[in-house]
């Protein structure tokens, strides 16, 4: 594999979690990541989330203050060396865009939202790089503030991924709302959580695993308690969780809980976390679990390394989509070749970079997935598939951009969809739409005929295309399509000039 990342390159990951915000800065050396700085703040964002999706003013203020501090530490890094993601609580906001605009301003870098199952993939990647390498199948459980992820995998590859809407903050607020802890409340919570786990418990047990790891604050805190209670290496078992349950019930209230090594900060949410883990261990039949030091933030760093070194997980996802929807890959490659040729010609004038080229590559590969549903309106079917499928490696914004570009490859320009994209994505998405449209148009006949060499030049709101006159005369349908394309692009105040030479 050819390393694109220079030796000594700095990368940063920001995890905007429901309980804590984390920043990890690492240096890339000899194929490994050396952590050089960590910052953590217990913001408890989930505690400020209203049932209507609103965020309390104090939590919003606390979140932005924390992100501004993180932003100072990574102000020297370019955007492509920082990956910041929001998880469950940000996903559940009524108006995530309003929060993200303020959050990105505070941090000084773009912030993405990841789905629960994408969060699970990144958690597994982080854990797999932080535990001893083995060929054994493993189960990873991560209890966050607002959601819990479950992943079965081997080496660095996840096989099964699930995410449930339960976390240490949400469950503490739900099952112990006034802070009072009784045996009945605890058992009722455990039963309710077990019912949620039934969605995939049988499938996971059938898959099986040889070792079990837990990540994030709740499980690490319980592992530390287990160690103090006499468990070697802090191994977490059902017996340990029963001992923790009994101590909490005896205390009677969150504020009165006294467990060895338990911090003041963790005390207020340990009941919800412990009851989730207790139910998970019972329902999935886990004999023992080890706590891991790494989690999603390390997964973000390793994913950045993978993307930079051409082992991008999104490539495998795009290939799987092509196979699932029986895409004519030969035709997709023709369209891609022409689209990228045009991209390379206009990129400097349009201020497009390598990441945008990757977008066009993905869009060209899957622009016809909708044909598997119906030819009529297949661009709209494709948009739905791409926007709503579980696409490993893609953030929510990335899926939205991909869906919008593919939606726009034929018929009218999707003006509303482009407007709904964040300001940092809409301009380049519009230009990728234009390039994909022209490439698809030039290959409408779907025959293996080489398109003549194009002379193409991009201005601020113009595109000049020069084609051989003889070729145009022998392709009357293409000529008509290009004339119609002028009208389509004029609707978005874009001028297409086609010249016969």
How would you characterize the overall build of this protein?
It contains 21 helices and 13 strands. The chain is of the alpha/beta class and 501 residues long. It has 3 domains: 106 residues, ATPase, nucleotide binding domain (Nucleotidyltransferase, domain 5); 163 residues, 2-Layer Sandwich (Nucleotidyltransferase, domain 5), CATH 3.30.420.150; 189 residues, Hypothetical protein af1432, CATH 1.10.3210.10. The strands form 3 sheets. It has a 5-stranded mixed β-sheet, with helices on both faces. The longest helix is centred in the C-terminal third of the chain and has 22 residues.
What is the CATH topology assignment of the largest domain?
A: Hypothetical protein af1432
The dominant shape is elongated
* CATH-defined superfamily of the largest domain: Hypothetical protein af1432
Output mean pLDDT: 95
* Structural domains: how many: 3
Work out the helix count: 21
Content-based structural category: alpha/beta
Number of strands: 13
Low-confidence stretches: none
Based on the structure given, which CATH architecture of the largest domain is correct?
A: Orthogonal Bundle
Q: How many angstroms separate the termini? A: 43 Å
Helix content: 40-55%
């Amino acid at each position: 594999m050819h390393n694109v990342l220079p030796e000594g390159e700095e990368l940063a990951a920001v995890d905007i979690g429901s309980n804590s915000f984390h920043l990890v800065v690492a240096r890339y050396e000899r194929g490994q990541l050396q952590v050089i700085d960590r910052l953590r703040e217990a913001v408890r964002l989930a505690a400020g989330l209203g049932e209507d999706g609103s965020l309390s003013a104090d939590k919003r203020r606390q979140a932005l203050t924390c992100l501004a501090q993180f932003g100072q530490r990574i102000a020297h890094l370019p955007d492509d060396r920082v990956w910041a993601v929001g998880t469950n609580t940000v996903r559940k906001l009524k108006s995530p865009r309003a929060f993200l605009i303020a959050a990105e301003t505070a941090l000084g870098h773009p912030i993405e939202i990841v789905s629960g199952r994408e969060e699970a993939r990144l958690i597994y990647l982080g854990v797999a790089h932080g535990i001893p390498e083995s060929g054994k199948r493993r189960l990873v459980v991560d209890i966050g503030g607002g959601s819990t992820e479950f992943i079965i995998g081997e080496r660095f590859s996840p096989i099964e991924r699930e995410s449930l809407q339960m976390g240490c903050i949400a469950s503490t607020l739900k099952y112990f709302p006034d802070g009072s802890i009784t045996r009945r409340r605890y058992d009722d919570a455990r039963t309710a959580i077990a019912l949620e786990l039934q969605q995939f418990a049988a499938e996971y047990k059938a898959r099986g695993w040889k070792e079990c790891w837990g990540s994030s604050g709740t499980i690490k805190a319980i592992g530390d308690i287990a160690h103090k209670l006499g468990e070697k290496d802090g191994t977490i078992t059902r017996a340990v969780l029963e001992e923790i349950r009994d101590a909490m019930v005896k205390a009677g209230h969150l504020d009165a809980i006294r467990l060895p090594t338990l911090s003041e900060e963790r005390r207020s949410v340990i009941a919800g976390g412990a009851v989730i883990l207790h139910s998970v261990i019972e329902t999935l039949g886990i004999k023992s679990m080890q706590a891991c030091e790494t989690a999603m933030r390390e997964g973000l760093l390793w994913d950045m390394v993978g993307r930079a070194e051409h082992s991008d997980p999104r490539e495998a996802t795009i290939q799987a989509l092509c196979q699932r929807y029986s895409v004519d890959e030969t035709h997709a490659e023709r369209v891609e070749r022409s689209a990228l040729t045009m991209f390379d010609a206009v990129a400097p004038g349009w201020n497009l970079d390598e990441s945008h080229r990757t977008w066009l590559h993905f869009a060209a590969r899957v622009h016809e997935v909708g044909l598997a549903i119906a030819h009529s309106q297949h661009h709209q079917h494709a948009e739905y598939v791409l926007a709503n499928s579980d696409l490993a490696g893609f953030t929510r914004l990335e899926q939205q951009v991909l869906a919008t570009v593919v939606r726009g490859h034929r018929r009218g320009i999707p003006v509303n969809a482009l407007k709904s994209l964040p300001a940092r994505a809409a301009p380049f998405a519009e230009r990728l739409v234009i390039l994909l449209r022209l490439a698809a148009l030039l290959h409408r006949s779907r025959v293996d005929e080489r398109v003549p060499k194009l002379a193409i030049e991009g201005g601020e709101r113009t595109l000049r295309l020069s084609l051989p006159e003889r070729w145009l005369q022998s392709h009357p349908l293409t000529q008509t399509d290009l004339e119609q394309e002028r009208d389509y692009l004029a609707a978005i105040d874009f001028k297409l000039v086609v010249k016969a030479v």
